[in-house]
């Protein structure tokens, strides 16, 4: 992984980008007032000569308890920018700032971020039909929830952001939480999102493998067999649901590699290093296949 100094340099380099509030006033599904329910986006743009017109809403992981904003946020924005893609880094609501259970709050933030990106596409040189979402771990749950729970917008809404679709055009899921099934899910993410005693309906609603349809966007998935934090069965369940629904999908499962590798190499120099180095190359090939980058 990046050294502490490298990470600090990266954080300082990214700091000047303005964070834009997603909501005017108190967001929906708020608990504890406006200050405890802040959600923002920050737009990282590639060099104009590299720009492809594609954009990705980035959802860092953190178990719905916080945000791994460094290696699953800033580093991802740089990866995307280097390939000509606009990165829209989402700071969605988590248990670190407001009481749990979170329930609908993170999903509403993700949907709003996609709508906001689409409504402001022209300003940032984005093509409105090339807006994807990328999530890691619990952020992968959020990204897959946004990929299975969406609408076309309300054309009668006064707010122009609410008028447009919140469906992502493609999805990237890195070691994602997918299901709320107690045998497979990540317990901490489930507790922060749904509380200690969720209803059967809530568990089913947020078990995203149950909601894949033919309209679910094309998806790239990455996971490792060794991941003991978020079991690889999560990614497998989602891939099988995509396959059954006829949705274009690609999955990469590696034997070695811990949870949370991001784009970086394993610091101990195990075989996982070559895997975490190679899987972004697989993603780049997939982005080319989808004609999102040249």
Written account of the structure:
The longest helix has 18 residues, at 272-289. This protein has helices at 4-14, 70-82, 105-119, 138-148, 187-194, 200-205, 233-245, 272-289, and strands spanning 19-21, 40-44, 55-59, 86-91, 131-136, 170-174, 219-224, 249-254. α3 packs across α4. The chain has 8 helices and 8 strands, in the order αβββαβαβαβααβαβα. With 294 residues, the protein is of the alpha/beta class. An 8-stranded mixed sheet has the order 1-2-4-3-5-6-7-8, sandwiched between helices. Helices cover 32% and strands 14% of the residues. α2 (70-82) links the parallel β3 (55-59) and β4 (86-91).
Note the topology:
Blueprint: H1 4-14, E1 19-21, E2 40-44, E3 55-59, H2 70-82, E4 86-91, H3 105-119, E5 131-136, H4 138-148, E6 170-174, H5 187-194, H6 200-205, E7 219-224, H7 233-245, E8 249-254, H8 272-289
Parallel strand pairs: 3-4, 3-5, 5-6, 6-7, 7-8
Antiparallel strand pairs: 1-2, 2-4
Distinctive features:
alpha/beta; globular
Put the structure in a nutshell.
This protein has 294 residues and is an alpha/beta fold. It contains eight helices and eight strands.
Distance between the termini: 28 Å
Q: What would you call the shape?
A: globular
Global mean pLDDT:
92
Given the helix and strand composition, which structural class is it?
A: alpha/beta
Q: How many DSSP H or I helices?
A: 8
Strand line-up in the sheet with most strands:
1-2-4-3-5-6-7-8
Write the element-wise H/E pattern from the N-terminal end onward: HEEEHEHEHEHHEHEH
- Strand % is 5-15%
Rg over C-alpha atoms, rounded to the nearest angstrom: 18 Å
Helix content: 25-40%
